[in-house]
């Protein structure tokens, strides 16, 4: 976790008693070139004696998790931010962004030296380094050193580690004035450009951080695949890191087992419209991409006919979030700009929660269709029953109060219960519905018509038998009406269970999973029995 206590081990697994000078410099830079904070979060609501935090308190970070990991590392080496900051005065800062892929903080120590602290991508910072820090001093950085550093960074990336380079530069004289993220001066008019400050650096080391996928994300990706949803990773991480994470999550292949492409951001430069469509057709991972690339990826997927949901948390993600059909911002790490640009905010920053939201959306659509299916077919049955009886010259099969009773009890309550139907087992195994397709399709309308006609036909047949057995006048007609009423009421109760699924019979669907439907049918059964008694007495 983020608890800032522990040990740093050497290559042999032994605790490091005294930090080597380059490692001490590296941890100090990691703590200073940082905007995160470590904090204690009480797990319980009640504090301990004298206001002390409860025993179950745990450490958390406020800010970016990557920077929180660097703070934790520095603290475990005895170089926490609180330890190194008193001897340094922060005089300028250039925040990290996805274009520069680096962050710079300039401090002034007690001797008046200005120290430029830089952290960022290895491939971005290594060309800016001219020196190499060793235990016995600083020397020139050779081509052999560069090859070893690059090889080690690649090796760590292949283990799905997020790799950062840590560098610094010591200089005397006037402090540089660096622009802030808005382009304006941080403390005074800029006297030196950022490019001038972030050069001739001394390479201190690289840090590899594990950001493992959350529990349930791999299963959520597989659920997406079964549901006909394609998950695509768009990241600024190294290609090797992104490829390994995609392999761990199962993103690197489709439902048929066909391998999907991993695309480096450099491959996207200069693509025309056809090139973008070809690139997004079979790619599962886009690594080292810029904010402009994210926007173009979303646009290409939309032009290819896909409905795109885009997740993001940073300011640079805002254009892609707004362009996507559904923009999803992260509630914990997300910036306010990203949240404002998004259509929805995920409060736990978990991909599995997005998949759950998709499942709930499908359940809602299916429940709306169940509601329409049952209510329309039941009402059509009542209308057809009265209409046909009038057309053939029969007495009315249902009285006015009986029709009202059916509408209030056996129509409304079961229909509302169907709208509360829980998830079915196959809801995330069906292909996505076409968003342009109306709810009431021709096949769905025909289903309502013939089922409503079947309910009306059974009611009219029972009414005809009742008039044949008991007569078509007086008490005999009342008995026939009662038979017709009970037939339609019980048929609607049976039909309520049948309307739960258009593909399966009521016996193959989870029969007892909807307690609301059973309660509604029991209310309808008891009410109809009472109505029948009143009808027979009259």
Explain what you see.
With 538 residues, the protein is α/β, with parallel strands linked by helices. 45% of the residues lie in helices and 16% in strands. It has 17 helices and 15 strands. It has a seven-stranded mixed beta sheet, sandwiched between helices. The chain has a three-stranded parallel beta sheet with strand order 10-12-11. The chain has a three-stranded parallel beta sheet with strand order 13-14-15. A hairpin with a 7-residue loop joins strand 3 (88-94) and strand 4. Helix 13 (351-392) packs antiparallel against helix 16 and helix 14 (400-418) runs parallel beside helix 16. The longest helix is centred in the last third of the chain and has 42 residues, at 351-392. 34% of the residues are buried. The model is unreliable at 46-50 and 175-191 (pLDDT under 50).
């Amino acid at each position: 976790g983020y608890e800032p206590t522990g040990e740093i081990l050497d290559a042999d697994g032994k605790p490091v008693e005294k930090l080597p000078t380059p490692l001490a410099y590296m941890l100090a830079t990691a703590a200073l070139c940082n905007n995160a904070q470590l904090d204690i979060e009480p797990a319980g609501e009640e504090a301990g004696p004298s206001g002390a935090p409860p025993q179950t308190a745990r450490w958390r970070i406020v800010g970016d998790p990557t920077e929180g990991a660097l703070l934790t590392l520095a603290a475990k080496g005895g170089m926490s931010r609180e330890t190194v900051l008193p001897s340094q005065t922060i005089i300028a800062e250039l925040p990290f962004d996805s274009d520069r892929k680096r962050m710079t903080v300039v401090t002034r120590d007690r001797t008046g030296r200005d120290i430029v602290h830089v952290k960022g991508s290895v491939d971005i910072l290594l060309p800016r380094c001219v020196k190499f820090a060793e235990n016995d001093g600083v020397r020139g950085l050779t081509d052999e050193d560069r090859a070893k550093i690059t090889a080690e960074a690649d090796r760590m990336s292949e283990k799905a580690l997020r790799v950062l380079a840590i560098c610094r530069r010591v200089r005397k004289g006037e402090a540089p004035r660096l622009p802030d993220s808005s382009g304006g001066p941080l403390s005074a008019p800029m006297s030196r450009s950022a490019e001038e400050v972030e050069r001739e650096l001394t390479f201190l080391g690289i840090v590899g951080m594990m950001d493992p996928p959350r529990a349930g994300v791999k299963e959520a990706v597989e659920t997406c695949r079964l549901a006909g949803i394609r998950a695509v990773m768009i990241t600024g991480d190294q290609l090797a890191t992104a490829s390994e994470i995609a392999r761990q999550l199962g993103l690197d292949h489709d439902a048929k087992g066909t391998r999907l492409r991993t695309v480096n951001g450099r491959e996207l430069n200069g693509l025309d419209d056809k090139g973008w469509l070809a690139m997004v057709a079979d790619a599962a991972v886009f690594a080292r991409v810029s904010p402009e690339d994210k926007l173009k990826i979303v646009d290409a997927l939309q032009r290819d006919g896909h409905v795109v949901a885009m997740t993001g948390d940073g300011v640079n993600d805002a254009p892609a979030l707004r362009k996507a059909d559904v923009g999803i911002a992260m509630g914990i790490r997300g910036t306010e700009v990203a949240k404002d640009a998004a259509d929805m905010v995920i409060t736990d920053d978990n991909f599995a929660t997005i998949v759950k939201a998709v499942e709930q959306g499908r359940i809602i659509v299916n429940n709306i269709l169940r509601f329409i299916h049952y209510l329309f077919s039941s009402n059509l049955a009542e209308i057809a029953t009265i209409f046909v009886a009038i057309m053939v010259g029969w007495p009315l099969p249902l009285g006015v109060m009986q029709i009202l009773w059916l509408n209030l009890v056996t129509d409304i309550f079961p229909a509302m219960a169907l709208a509360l139907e829980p998830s079915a087992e196959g809801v995330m195994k069906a292909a996505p519905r076409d968003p342009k397709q109306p709810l009431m399709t021709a096949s769905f309308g025909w289903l309502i018509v013939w089922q409503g006609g079947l309910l009306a036909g059974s009611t009219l047949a029972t009414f005809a038998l009742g008039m044949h057995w008991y007569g078509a006048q007086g008490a005999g007609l009342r008995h026939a009406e009662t038979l017709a009423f009970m037939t339609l009421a019980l048929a609607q109760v049976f039909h309520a269970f049948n309307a739960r699924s258009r593909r399966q019979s009521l016996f193959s669907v989870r029969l007892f999973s909807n307690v609301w439907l059973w309660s509604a049918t029991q209310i309808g059964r008891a009410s109809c029995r009472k109505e029948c008694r009143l009808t027979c007495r009259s």
